[in-house]
Design brief:
The complex is a heterodimer of chains A (about 350) and B (about 200). By secondary structure, chain A is an alpha/beta fold. Chain A has nine helices and 15 strands. Classes of the chains: A alpha/beta (about 350), B alpha/beta (about 200).
Chain lengths: ~350, ~200
């Protein structure tokens, strides 16, 4: 879906705002803290029903207001579409498509897809494995909403299993063993399905990653290898059985999709520890560009690009390369400084204290 | 905070499932405004269910007396037992009029997070019924979610060695609906559980 118009009510620092977005590039300018990112966050909320800044939904509601509302009018397959989400400070939110409430909010996923670039993306390369797993899983959900259910199921099984491990007090009675068997079987079923989906995705991502990195850094061989926390040829069931004694003693599930890693490398060396800051930044951008390309290829529709203040962190060379590499389609870019060189905005919006002009 | 009895009422209502502090307050003030007769009628039905209704000693359905109507009904097949999580699930299955056996209510599903293990459920009682009632088939009718599936698997592992037939209800498409409106999870499950067409 392409967003033509966006309304935010009691969202972050906005009391009420309406923004018209270009079919191509819209640039949002304003000083820091005026509400540029919140505009992107609002668009992003309609895509994932959460904030890409990783804050709880209550934090999105303007302080003092009972609920925030995000609404977008757009076009999808040349039909107009209005999506609207209510975010209450407590309780469950409501989601409406063309004024009809959805029975399950999850059914909205897939209507609007986004690719977010933010200064925090550097953490994808420098940070721990959790960020890279989340990156893969987010792309999976973008490709197909069924992956959201899979991810939720895996998390739930893990919580149940871990709680059981703690309740056992480290002692494996016959009763605990039988119940644990059941949770192991559930984790194997859902966990292996999630890992299979991740592996397939990674295969699609790798060539795009190489291409994007080469474009940004001018060369260098990038690799992205899935490192499971267990010997994968033996299967998760065998690994859980082997790890059971340790799991019981430590009260945690030590093997499974929640412990896996995506090892990123540049020219054969681990990017996390051996790459320069500049190389890491290029790799982070390349990860986003690759995800964008894969989602576009699989779904046949380019996600809306949300570029949150990314150019301020880049040197002139990389900034220019990124502008060159940005795929066509709708994009919204925020900046506290000048419009990046080479970018050709169709529309410029100015934000000051939650007011657009 | 409100005067003694009002706050007590809000606190008690707030303990009910699905009732948060705000709803509890709203219901409490609604009750205060209600004519005395209406409010007392509510109080008396609560007293009545607690005094007269208990759980069936055989299947743990809600019942008046020692055993529920379904267990006492001699036309029902005693060798066929449908295992459900809650008494309200019996109502759902009964509406189909397709099932002529007996029931067994577990009173929940295995969920360590909620502190529910097999020992908190009516599992031992189910096992005791197997021999005593000569049960030949157990249909596992727990919910098609993580906890329901885990419970079904747990029971299957206990029951199969006893030599009884253990089945799980199929999950699939609502009858009378269109494929195009089915969510992909349900449709996926329905494809998995497909069967050959008799010709």
């Amino acid at each position: 879906m392409r967003v033509a118009r966006l309304w935010l009510t009691d969202f972050r620092n906005y009391t009420s705002v309406e923004a018209e977005l270009a079919a191509g590039l819209t640039v949002v300018v304003g000083r820091n803290g005026e509400g540029k990112t919140s505009l992107l966050e609002g668009i992003g909320y309609l895509a994932t029903l959460s904030s890409f800044r990783g804050v709880p939904n209550e934090a999105l509601v303007r302080s003092g207001a009972p609920r925030a509302v995000v609404r977008a009018e757009g076009e999808r397959e040349s039909r107009s579409l209005i999506v609207e989400a209510e975010i209450p400070t407590s309780g469950r939110g409501r989601v409406l498509v063309n004024h009809q409430p959805l029975r399950r909010s999850r059914d909205l996923l897939g209507a609007l897809r986004i690719t977010v670039f933010s200064p925090d993306d550097l953490e994808l390369v420098k940070g721990g494995p959790a960020g890279r797993r989340r990156y893969l899983d987010d792309v999976l959900v973008s490709l197909h909403p069924k992956h959201d259910a899979l991810r939720v199921d895996v998390e739930r099984v893990l919580r149940q299993r871990t709680t059981l491990l703690r309740q056992s007090g480290g002692r494996l009675t016959a009763e605990i063993a039988t119940t644990l068997d059941v949770w192991d079987a559930q984790l194997v079923e859902h966990g292996e399905a999630l890992v299979a989906a991740r592996l397939e995705l990674l295969q699609r991502l790798e060539p795009e990653l190489t291409k994007a990195y080469a474009g940004l850094a001018g060369g260098g061989q990038v690799s992205a290898r899935y490192e499971a926390s267990w010997p994968m040829d033996g299967g998760l069931a065998a690994a859980l059985a082997a790890s059971r004694a340790n799991d019981l003693r430590r009260g945690v599930t030590l093997v499974g999709p929640h412990r896996d890693e995506v090892a990123l490398g540049i020219d054969g060396l681990p990017a996390r520890t051996h790459a320069s800051q500049g190389e890491q930044r290029s790799l982070a951008l390349a990860l986003r560009l690759a995800a964008h390309a894969v989602v576009r290829e699989v779904t046949g529709e380019p996600p809306v690009l949300l570029l949150d203040d990314v150019f301020s962190e880049l040197d002139a060379g990389r900034s220019h390369a990124l502008v060159e590499l940005l795929p066509s389609g709708q994009a919204v870019l925020t900046t506290a400084g000048p419009v990046p060189e080479g970018a050709e905005p169709e529309r410029v919006l100015r934000v000051e204290s939650g007011v657009l002009s | 905070m409100y005067a003694g009895p009002v706050q007590d009422l809000i606190d008690e209502l707030g303990r009910l499932p699905g009732v948060g502090p705000k709803s509890a307050q709203r219901i409490a003030f609604h009750l205060l405004k209600l004519p005395k007769d209406d409010a007392l009628r509510l109080a008396s039905v609560i007293t009545e269910v607690k005094e007269r209704i208990s759980f069936c000693r055989r299947c743990f359905n809600v019942c008046e007396g020692e055993e529920c109507e379904l267990c006492l009904d001699t036309r029902r097949d005693p060798t066929l037992v449908c295992v459900v999580e809650e008494p309200r699930d019996i109502v759902a299955v009964e509406k189909t009029q397709e099932f002529k056996g007996r029931y067994h209510v577990l009173q929940g599903a295995i969920s360590p997070i909620e502190g529910i293990g097999p020992e908190q459920l009516r599992v031992k009682e189910l096992l005791a019924r197997m021999d005593a009632e000569g049960i030949a088939e157990v249909i596992l009718c727990t919910n098609p979610n993580i906890e329901g599936e885990a419970t079904a698997m747990y029971l299957a592992r206990l029951l199969k060695p006893l030599g009884v037939k253990v089945t799980r209800i199929a999950s699939g498409l609502p009858v009378g609906g269109d494929l195009e409106y089915a969510d992909e999870l349900t449709l996926g499950r329905a494809l998995e559980g497909r069967r050959e067409v008799e010709a």
